[in-house]
Write a structure and sequence with these properties.
Chain lengths: ~250, ~250, ~250, ~250, ~250
């Protein structure tokens, strides 16, 4: 995540918080926070194993801090491997395997160098890809669940507040203040969902797609190298995976 | 479900209930409960056969109490079977079949030992897997239906309450109390859905995916053993199904 | 549908109606009913051909009154057919075809006895299955559409009531009564959807899945018989379609 | 669409309008109509090309006025073609091609008579079918979009009305009338969506499915004729596409 | 986008804005705008990389300004290529490649002229197509996300406004004005979503489908040319992709 994005996000969040900040006291209410946060966490932990929920936190840190290698770099490296394989034989890749920045690429090379049958390589790598995608979608699932539970517990909190207020209402002039407090949980729920859970779930989805793309490029590339394709053909095959604008960058 | 999860869930639920507990009398209303619970159960039983609904309760107990064997254990066992089969022939697995902790694995071994054709084994096991998944999704379906009906009957109850209150309204000072009672059913519906039905439906989904994963590992493993694969190849194929972090544990 | 289910449903519905019954007069309003029921029926008939809508009523009657033969019975019958075919040749099934309780099974046997090529049998039966599923899903579609239109027309009725009330409001003391009447259509819409349309749509879905299961068992079984499989193999193949608990019943 | 359907629809719509008709003046407000209709049309035209939106109107006219030929008629015709082809050779179909009521059937026959390879015929016809379905789903898409935009602009109109009313509120006694006017746009939006757009979108879906069914019957039939199947086999294959009740009619 | 569409859209938008314009001062509130716009942009940038969001703006400009070549033009060109290939050999296409208006078509021709194996051409082109579709769906994804976040931040703004107003309410006569201001953010959110984000997302979807259609025509056409098909057969195959009305235009 580059600096421009960070600034934009901070600016966006600030605009929302500015509306609150002048009367910050009105908007802080610990019991209300406990209902929404506690309920959301409780429901999420009923839904997902504790280990998975904690594992997701690490995924999120990666999604925001770790900068993706662009697929063009991976293509460049695979084409260079193809050149080596073409010139010196596929066994020559053994010594270059550790150059691979991606453990998935490294594993693919080892499989190819070991002379594993192409169908078996494809089988192993696509199985790994399928389950990688499933594990990633678990991360999205956790945040989507939280983004669904948070507004629900916001509404539960507001209902609790309204029922208390309405039952004990004696002085009509206090209705306003009671209602304001009751609405706080709905606000908390909406903010947790829309400023936190849903954008993160979306981010994880975008990251997953990008990572899957790189892995698909690797599988196609290794199979192409193993079948003895000309490096130019390898490049042509892999270029089909990326956008024309990325291709121009690559060519430049 | 380990102790940490239990504590977290209890803490979460407590935070929500704490908001209620001080005025618990306000929040207990039997006729309101009967509308929501009765309506939800009635609609669910119109939707699903009684046997299925009762069967689901057992599934839920398992989902929360029964601890899953991690897939690494299953892989370890299959690799050990592969070693036996390689060394002493596939018939030697007969005597080891009852070691299998999973009845699906045991059945697979018997099929392989009986010399059933690989396509037939695959056919039988994947059919069984497909219908197992369908039966599991029935369980989720029951809870998703309940989680949809509960808020709906909550709203029906609130409408009934509002109509009664509004029709007989004479003294405006009683509006508050009447409204509070009317809102109770909405609260009950939202709590049943979000603190009970939806998280359980989610839990069943997570469990189903994990169980399917183990079964897919078993099918792949048995076919690999039957085709006479080297135990190292069997392990490599099966490792593709699990996450790199699990693999490290396994290696350790 | 057995007696236990009926009792549960009646109990559930009663709990909801009890809340109404004491003030039944408040909750009966013919013009309000006409808006919701008339609008729902009108929109449904714009959506689906009259013939289909009427045909659905018959499907519903079957879904609730007709008791499904359990798949184990069908499996038992197919295995018995397999034994006959094995012992006396497939032509011997001709005379047993009318024993088949299911017209689909009967048709399958005739096809097999006629010496139709296995691919053609599979083709004809799976086509029939696919279109049977589509016709069944039409039934669900009608009830889902009604369950969506009913609350919509409930809201339309409430808006009409509110607009009339608000426009002609002179005496604030009549607001309550006017609002109560306006809310009635919303209540009717919610009740029609959640106590009638949605549970029935769900029921039809469950029934369809069960019926499809039986038909898939039949297709697999007939093909297996035709290919000359041993009755034990036929049984093994078909048992994969059903749950382990059903299998135990079968064995017993 | 037969007369019974028309009567039912008119009755349904009338029941809703009757609730309005006595106070019709309250429910007619041109500025409110312009917001909802104008906004819906504007948003729809941003979403879809003008040509497509206009093309959809023709589709709708067909969907309601043009009576479908039942699939049994098409099957009967194809079986008669099969008989001709069997007796006089496939070239004899040339002179009968114009009997085909359906241009898709006519085209299929020409392809078969021209001696086009079966795979190519299947390729061309299924491609045509796939894109026909896509074009039909465009029609549904337009109405679903309109049915989504109409309530949204209804809400926008109500918000505009509420904001104006609340800002300039001086005399509390005018609140009622102002609110009534503000709610009109919501009512218009709900009526446009539920009495017009959604049922028509549903109708188009039902029609598309029926038309696809007929086209699939034609493809299967032509390929069966070309492969020289016995007319009885052709009929058997095609009968699998339709419901048992339709088959009985056919036999009768 | 032709002039008629522009006029219709402007007319539609004007009808909505006219309702506002007379009291324009009531509807402009910068802090409210900042909450909705800032929140939506912030959440969108958390969800998608900055580069993707900026890239989408270019896509939108194209979607509205760039007029699509109709598929019939592409078919005409491919048929003319087929004629050349048939008459002068496929190498003769080399010199005509730059006539191709579409870079995808140009690339396809170069692949065919280079004598690339048909399976490889198909592989490369369909991979490119699949990832092109994925990149396009990213554009839709950005606008759908914005169209979901905008109403959510509209609600958040209204909750903030209501809580402030209710907490500090002293003079009941100011409720109206405060509420009006609070509702402004909901109005902004609804207008951004329904007059901007959702129709654009829909537009991008329609454009993507049209573009995919042209690319599928190109793939089918190049493979058909390479396999040496008669130009008439090429035309027949490609005509199956487009609607009968377009075909008539073509013939004319």
């Amino acid at each position: 995540m580059d600096i421009a994005t960070v600034i934009c996000i901070i600016a966006g969040v600030t605009l929302v918080l500015m509306a609150i900040i002048s009367n910050i006291v009105l908007f802080i209410n610990f019991p209300a926070m406990l209902i929404v946060v506690g309920g959301t966490i409780g429901a999420t932990l009923m839904n997902f194993p504790l280990g998975d929920v904690l594992g997701v936190l690490k995924t999120v840190k990666n999604a925001f801090l770790h900068k993706d290698k662009p697929p063009t770099d991976v293509i460049e490296m695979i084409v260079s491997f193809a050149t080596t394989a073409r010139r010196e034989g596929i066994l020559a890749l053994e010594s270059r395997a550790e150059e691979a920045s991606d453990p998935f690429l490294e594993k693919s090379i080892h499989l190819a160098v070991d002379g594993t049958a192409p169908e078996l390589i494809k089988d192993i790598l696509t199985t790994e890809l399928a389950f990688l995608e499933e594990r990633h979608s678990l991360g999205q699932g956790v945040f989507i669940a939280m983004g669904t539970f948070a507004p629900a517990f916001g509404m539960i909190g507001t209902l609790i507040g309204l029922i208390q207020m309405l039952s004990t209402m004696e002085d009509p002039s206090t209705i306003g203040a009671g209602m304001a407090v009751a609405l706080l949980t709905t606000l908390y729920g909406a903010m947790i969902a829309n400023m936190f859970c849903m954008p993160i779930a979306g981010k994880l989805k975008v990251r997953t797609r990008m990572e899957m793309l790189v892995k698909e490029v690797i599988i196609e590339g290794i199979l192409s190298i193993q079948s003895g394709d000309n490096p130019r053909v390898v490049e042509q095959k892999l270029m089909a995976f990326i956008s024309p604008s990325m291709r121009k960058e690559q060519a430049a």
